[in-house]
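Structural biology now treats backbone shape like a language. To illustrate, our science desk offers a sequence and the tokens encoding its fold:
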Amino acid sequence: MPRPIVCRSLLARSLFLAIALSCVGTCALAIAADPVDIVFQANVDQTEQRYVLIAPDSPSATGIDVLIALHGHGSDRWQFATGQLAEGRAARDIAAKYAMLYVSPDYRAKTSWMGPKAEADVQQIIAELKAKYPVRRVFLSGASMGGTSVLTYAAIHPDDVDGVISMNGTANHLEYERFQEAISASFGGSKVEIPAEYKKRSGEYWPERFTMPVGFTTGGRDTIVPPESVTRLANILKRLDRPVRQIHREAGGHSTTYEDAIEAFEFVIQAAQ
């Protein structure tokens, strides 16, 4: 793989927009599919943060969809940008198939869990993408911690999101018991100290906000992030007649196969048409 390019976000985005808007319909781009490591200053605390951007070979001049992929606990932006996990390969293949702008942020790696600063970073990235590119729709995806975090973000900012793919995540931080030291640091306190913050970041408590298509993948033998809260949320969304699909493998553990991930992505993208 070519060495990723480190550059400032405004320059990279302006370059991509200038080339895309110069095309009529679609055209082949020289900048194409190599990952670009973007550095930006976070508005929330002025720290230096990063995400990886992969531009499509042939974007449309009339608009482009964005797929944001969130990594798991203990990892960083490169897990979904270049890693070989089935979930990451599926996300990149879907982005390539549909000529999407693919974005893999650190979101306060390596133990984010979509706390307030990670949330602010993702919101800033989305806003800047929309300001610089002809964005049509924004899809959020992730696995494990990332699968949890996409539900958190969509519940808090539903107007930012046109579709959600949550793989092996939890929808209830008040009942979840793993990784509590990292989650407490991210959220600003324990669930005993700030239960309202944990409720705010638990998708299960806000089903009315999931108006966008949602795809879930879960494993019945997943002991790292048990599937029960996601199953409850999926069932509630079905009762509300929302576009939702849960791919549950009773013998599955804490991972999603490439085929199941592709099915979840395809469902959400098609339902968002």
